[in-house]
């Protein structure tokens, strides 16, 4: 099989395509002929040698944890009816997704519904489950004015759709003119480019902020909240979380919370339950993921574009099968 391997930490070009022996599934595992592999911002941090929710992997490593494809081999003690199944899986703490084959336990598998493509399935099992957790913890209402940061990213794109479906007034925000222009396809009530000076002066009446950016943009968004407003944080692509303290909450009469981790895991069905429900929502047409695809061999370019905010939506590597 072909796979992307990383032998050292560093810039995107440390990701190289290599030919490796085919995988053999262990007891309780299946082998997936991978058609689509998800690329996460976390992958770029680990590539640079910056630990986060997952520890730095032993090198060399095959990055990536989200895969979709067809089961082409089953290991001992696995029902043979899995053979030929269209599946998607999150591999968990052990990477290995940037490859033509992946081996994982049957308990990690979700069947991909008919009509759902493999790139969209990958978007659902990773980004989709996080988006669903955010909105289940803090759903928008018809009375809300919702500001979605990084709305042209894979997660923000889904959050905009959810808030619109719930009847909220939605302000979709992105960090460049090109990304802001792409948001017109979602038909939000307002689009802003927070890369422009004075962007916050054009936004009024915000009651709910979905913040995956942090830094100065997150802080400016917090200051837009009306009394009784909610700040929902789930990331900090700017490099640091939104700065706030108890005084902010008291003076502004707002609430703020971090949605990732134990809070999200405590939702019904835990993280696997969120993934399954997100996949069902995509299958039903309730969510239309935005996906940018790259050939597997172009993983380094995909990383560079993701870090440089040039890629829109969820970044996915596709097999050349």
> Major sheet, described briefly?
7 strands, mixed
CATH architecture of the largest domain: Alpha-Beta Complex
Rg over alpha carbons: 20 Å
Distance between the termini: 11 Å
Strand content: 25-35%
Please work out how many helical segments DSSP would assign: 9
Could you walk me through the main structural features you see in this protein, from its secondary elements to its overall organization?
This protein is an alpha/beta fold. The protein has two domains: 175 residues, Medium-chain alcohol dehydrogenases, catalytic domain (Quinone Oxidoreductase, Chain A, domain 1); 120 residues, NAD(P)-binding Rossmann-like Domain (Rossmann fold). Helix content is 27%, strand content 27%. Strands 3, 4, 5, 6, 7, 14 and 15 form a seven-stranded mixed sheet that branches. Strands 10-9-8-11-12-13 form a six-stranded parallel sheet, sandwiched between helices. Strands 1-2 form a two-stranded antiparallel sheet. Strand 11, helix 5 and strand 12 form a beta-alpha-beta unit.
């Amino acid at each position: 099989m072909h796979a992307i391997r990383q032998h050292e930490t560093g810039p995107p070009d440390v990701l190289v395509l290599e030919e490796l022996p085919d995988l053999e599934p262990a007891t309780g595992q299946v082998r997936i002929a991978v058609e689509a592999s998800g690329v996460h911002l976390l992958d770029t941090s680990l590539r640079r040698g910056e630990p986060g929710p997952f520890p730095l992997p032993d090198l060399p490593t095959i990055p990536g944890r989200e895969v979709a494809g067809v089961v082409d081999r089953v290991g001992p003690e696995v029902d043979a009816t899995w053979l030929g199944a269209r599946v998607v899986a999150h591999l968990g703490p052990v990477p290995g997704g940037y490859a033509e084959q992946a081996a994982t336990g049957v308990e990690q598998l979700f069947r991909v519904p008919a009509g759902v493509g493999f790139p969209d399935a990958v978007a659902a099992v990773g980004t989709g489950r996080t988006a669903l957790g955010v909105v289940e913890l803090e759903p928008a209402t018809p009375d809300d004015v919702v500001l979605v940061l990084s709305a042209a990213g894979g997660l923000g794109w889904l959050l905009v759709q959810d808030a619109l479906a719930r009847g909220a007034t939605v302000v979709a925000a992105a960090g460049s003119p090109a990304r802001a222009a792409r948001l017109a396809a979602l038909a939000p009530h307002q689009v802003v480019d927070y890369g422009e000076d004075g962007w916050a002066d054009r936004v009024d009446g915000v009651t709910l902020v979905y913040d995956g950016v942090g830094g100065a943009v997150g802080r400016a968004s917090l200051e837009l909240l009306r009394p009784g407003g909610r700040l929902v944080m789930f990331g900090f692509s700017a490099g640091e979380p939104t700065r706030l303290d108890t005084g902010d909450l008291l003076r502004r009469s707002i609430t703020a919370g971090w949605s990732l981790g134990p809070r999200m895991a405590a939702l019904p069905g835990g993280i696997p339950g969120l993934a399954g429900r997100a996949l069902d929502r995509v299958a039903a047409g309730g969510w239309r993921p935005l996906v940018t695809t790259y050939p597997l061999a172009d993983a380094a370019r995909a990383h560079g574009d993701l870090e440089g905010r040039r890629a829109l939506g969820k970044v996915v590597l596709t097999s050349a099968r």
